[in-house]
Design goal:
single chain; 651 residues; alpha/beta; Urease, subunit C, domain 1; TIM Barrel; 3 domains; eight-stranded mixed β-sheet; 19% helix; 29% strand
């Protein structure tokens, strides 16, 4: 019950509100009551709200909408857990892009949609059973029934927003034509994901001018194998693309692991051909190295010349209109559902990676600070709503290792990757100091003081960072397929330097679908003296539970960094009786983490769910699993796209 005289549950004060639907682009307060937007105005008194958030120097927008995700976990392996994949990025409404078909949608609804905090809508695949790991099953034209597909959409009009055609590799238009027929019957748009490879018998002009209807959506617009956006000789946007846009065909970013190329995006943005919507094509591969999210997509396009306001329009109003949910969604109108994103626009030097694993070094980055879903704060990066701990952080002094001048003379060995001059903390071998670590294939080939740079195919300058064995997390719920509490280990481990998770709840299916090494612990592992995340699907949102949060907390409480790393590597390896893990050893699997000490004003959630103000924290900037770089926050291992020459995925 609200206290007398306090009509609002939550007040976001002093933020720069960008609400394109209502033409608001100014400093305003946003008041929330009963799960709805109650008022947007200047200078709403703080005493009218039970809780207030200082949003000064931040941007407050409607909750973001992602039209292209893959979250039906039992539909195919290339799917992610919805809540912890999108809510930390300000996204409150997502659309699953065709993982389920009409025969499998009811299972999708009962196992995922009905349990998620994020609002999940869906495009229904024209293939009756949806997407498959064996994509040849998506070529069975007899399994594409327009009437049955339309009937299922009409059965669930509040969830199913359209039809999806994807992954059809036979020549001709059969999948597209049947999807469009289903869309016609159901009076819904169609999202197309169909290649124009030279053996397909398909071309862009016919697709966008003859087959697609006004309101239909072509995704993956900034690659060069889904459609020919640019003339391959002049670099100009093709005239039929402008014509298609005029007749109402929509174009979705559809970033994914193959849908976004820097040369295409730069040329198109410079000519004013921006996406209508900013779908991410979220799946396990795009979420890691490419860091696919709606704020990441906005950041990439801003560094190519788009404005923040244009980005918010394409992440709120435009997608809501595309799926027939405007003005119900995508606005901060009074009476609308209180779905809100609070965003920071940071300036500095940042790396952004495209689908060909090339980077653009930019100066602007949009990040989510807080997410409100239906009036409830579901993500609070800086613990703004938690009580202060009352404690003062006293981080332990950092170890510092000097450079050594002598260089090791090597024979004729060539290495795939060398991490140069990292400050190595390897407690299991009592190895502390500056070392080079060379990798060949999946294994550590050499650890030495100074290896010749010329012997490496790729060199990463690690001199500003601490290099450790891959972390081992012995307290994490990763049973994400068969419960509503488990997190997906890859997206919640690899970006935090964790290469091994030991979990009593690890099933064979979880192990098979994870790049992280997941070990099925037979019993619950005693965690006394060890550092672990304790993460589950809820506390990764409410407490930012992760290994780097746990490391940062212990270090800020005065535990020496060498002991912190020991408690997250060699000690848990011994606890699970796997002493081959948690150390850096020549010949061993190359599981390695690199960390930086980030300085600034931050907040950590302590073990009592209070806010601890700190001046520095530990962040993972690179993770290597089995010799492959799976996380690279600064693009240290990735080449700038302008230096890579022409590149294409068309064939």
């Amino acid at each position: 019950m609200l206290a007398f005289g306090q009509p609002y549950d939550l007040l976001l004060q002093g933020g720069h509100v960008i609400d394109p639907a209502n033409n608001i682009d100014a400093i305003r307060d946003v008041a929330i009551a009963g799960g709805k937007i109650a008022r947007v105005a200047a200078n709403i008194p703080a005493n009218l709200a039970r809780r207030t958030v200082d949003a000064q120097r931040l941007y407050v927008t409607p909750g973001l909408i992602d039209l292209h995700t893959h979250v039906y976990l039992r539909g195919r392996s290339s799917t992610v857990v919805a809540d912890d994949a999108v809510l930390p990025h300000g996204t409150t409404t997502i659309v699953d892009a065709g993982v389920a078909g009409w025969k499998t949608f009811d299972d999708f609804k009962s196992t995922v949609i009905d349990h998620a905090q994020v609002r999940i809508l869906a495009f229904l695949n024209i293939v009756s059973s949806g997407m498959h790991d064996d994509q040849s099953k998506e070529n069975i034209v007899a399994d594409m029934d327009p009437r049955a597909t339309a009937a299922k959409i009409l059965q669930y009009p509040n969830i199913l927003v359209g039809v999806k055609s994807a992954h059809f590799t036979l020549p001709g238009w059969a999948s597209v034509e049947r999807a469009i027929e289903a869309g016609r019957i159901a009076n819904k748009p169609v999202m197309l994901d169909s290649s124009i490879f030279s053996n397909s018998g398909r071309n862009t002009r016919d697709k966008v001018l003859k087959l697609m209807r006004p309101g239909d959506i072509q995704t993956h617009m900034y690659n060069d194998h889904q459609l020919e956006l640019l003339d391959r000789f002049t670099g100009k946007v093709q005239p039929w693309m402008w014509e298609a846009r005029k007749r109402g065909v929509l174009f979705d970013l559809g970033h994914g692991a193959g849908g976004f190329l820097w040369p295409v995006a730069q040329a198109a943005v410079s000519q004013g051909f921006l996406p209508d919507t900013l779908g991410t094509d979220l799946h396990p591969e795009s979420i890691l190295l490419l860091q696919a999210s709606v704020p990441n997509a906005i950041s990439k396009l801003m560094n190519l010349g788009m404005s923040l306001q244009d980005g918010i329009l394409r992440a709120t109003v435009n997608p809501a209109k595309a799926i027939g949910r405007f003005p119900e969604r995508g606005t901060l109108s009074e009476g609308a559902a209180a779905d809100v994103a609070v965003l920071a626009l940071d300036t500095g030097v940042f790396s952004f990676i495209d689908s060909m694993r090339k980077k653009l070094t930019g100066t602007k980055k949009v990040e989510c600070v807080m997410t409100v879903r239906g009036g409830e704060v579901v993500f609070d990066r800086d613990a703004r709503l938690l009580p202060a701990s009352g404690e003062t952080a006293r981080p332990a002094p950092l170890p510092s290792y000097p450079f050594e001048e002598n260089r090791l003379e090597e024979g004729s060995t060539v290495y795939d990757l060398v991490l140069k001059q990292g400050q190595v903390i390897d407690p299991g071998n009592k190895r502390y100091g500056r070392y080079d670590i060379a990798i060949n294939g999946k294994r550590i080939a050499r650890i030495a003081k100074r290896l010749p740079v010329a012997h490496a195919r790729l060199v990463v300058d690690a001199s500003e960072y601490y290099v450790t064995p891959g972390l081992i997390d012995v307290n994490a719920d990763v049973n994400f397929l068969d419960s509503t509490t488990g997190v997906q280990p890859d997206q919640r481990s690899l970006p935090y330097g964790v290469t091994t998770v030991a979990s009593a709840g690890a099933t064979p299916a979880v192990i098979r679908r994870s790049r992280t090494q997941v070990l099925p612990a037979g019993v619950q592992i005693p965690v006394g003296g060890l550092i672990s995340s304790g993460m589950n699907r809820q506390n990764v949102l409410t407490e930012q539970a992760s290994m780097t949060r746990a490391l940062s907390l212990k270090w800020n409480e005065g535990m020496p960094l060498t002991e912190v790393i020991q408690a997250a590597t060699v000690l848990p390896a011994r606890a699970i009786k796997r002493e081959d893990l948690g150390v850096l050893r020549e010949g061993a699997p190359a599981d390695i983490a690199m960390f930086e000490i980030r300085r600034g004003d931050f907040a950590l959630v302590d073990d009592n769910r209070r806010r601890l103000a700190v001046k520095a924290k530990i962040e993972c900037i690179l993770t290597i699993r089995n010799g492959g770089v799976v996380w690279d926050a600064h693009g240290l291992s990735i080449r700038e796209w302008t230096q890579a020459g022409r590149y294409t995925s068309f064939r």
